[in-house]
Amino acid sequence: MNAITPIGAASGVEGCGERVILRQRGQREVFCGLTGIVWLHRKIQDAFFLVVGSRTCAHLIQSAAGVMIFAEPRFATAIIDERDLAGLADCNEELDRVVAQLLARRPEIKLLFLVGSCPSEVIKLDLSRAAQRLSQSHSPRVRVLNYSGSGIETTFTQGEDACLASLVPSLPAKADATPQLLVVGALADVVEDQFQRIFSELGFKDVRFLPPRSASDLPPVGPGTKYLLAQPFLTDTARILEERGGVRLEAPFPLGAEGTTRWLRAAAEAFGIDPVKFQEVTAARHARAVASLDKYKADLAGKRVFFFPDSQLEIPIARFLAREVDCKLIEVGTPYLHRQHLSVELDLLPADVQLSEGQDVDLQLDRCIAARPDITVCGLGLANPLEADGLTTKWSIELLFTPIQGYEQAADLAGLFARPLDRRARLRV
Length: 429
Description:
Elements: E1 2-8, E2 18-25, H1 37-43, E3 47-53, H2 55-65, E4 75-79, H3 82-85, H4 91-105, E5 111-116, H5 118-122, H6 127-138, E6 143-148, H7 158-167, E7 180-184, H8 189-202, E8 207-210, E9 225-229, H9 235-243, E10 247-248, H10 256-270, H11 275-300, E11 304-307, H12 314-324, E12 328-334, H13 343-348, E13 354-359, H14 361-371, E14 375-378, H15 380-388, E15 393-395, H16 398-401, H17 410-428
Helix pairs in contact: 7-9, 10-11, 11-17
């Protein structure tokens, strides 16, 4: 079922009137939440992700990660086979044995995530109790947590949200109410380092990141913690942080020169940073980012873009494309639209853009093919059929695997959209 829902524009500077959102409820085309492990295992460097699932789960993650034959990544799959499905084996005993073998082989592991999948949920394996039992058995050397990466009801970026939400209750309590900034959402190390330098130059005294690079460096949270979301899909994580006393800073997401500046300014204003100091620290970086986009504007200006709902990054990226490289937005679909977290982004979108929430894939395919956009942003499952129909596509999952946040990555983000157009032009020659 599809329905039209008006929502009032949020109280941002440039929003006005009501936006009409097409709410879609039908067949969906989604990628599995286990995919989040691909970037999370690179981030938390002494953590390990053990998927409790099938051989299909193992093939999915290994294919998505592009793991070389000699690599030893920090994820694996405890295979549920026919004996487990038939109830002929004690799954908890099998899991305990696999975990013991894993920790004996990999003594550097300090944090172990048991990641649920469709098969483990089908057989009702209680990974929450298993995590508690294993955490007690292997404490204090290893903490064991669990979350669901099943793709039955979620989109793939919700794997990161579920992971971080499982981690928040383990964060130490903040000892006092002194001001602290917490940046929430997995960022590439190079991007995190860039932001850390900017915050240091601005005069921030206490800036922490979640997830941390080490399980031994979990940030405290409590009164005095103000947090910035670096990713728009962290709904459950944000809710649990606020239950712990954290306060969210309202800001767009740090994509492009404009988004990054507004994101940093939200933190600076909340912590009383002198506006003159803010300008001194950010002006040159902002100018370089704007200049770096100039070479892509010739290719992207006026290009018509259609977003299928896939990653929940659609609205911030659409804002970047429309405002910083002059693209035209036909439809911006997102799996779930969190009105509060995206209020500033919604205000910055062109007033006439069609927004859609959820998916009825057949109807959206009809709208896309009828519109004949210059660029279609979609999941892997739709890309090949659309390419065969003559449309140029951009895989939405690539926007998660590539560092795109911050000033230095603004041109990289634009380049991700310019390259498919260049490829199409070369193939026509």
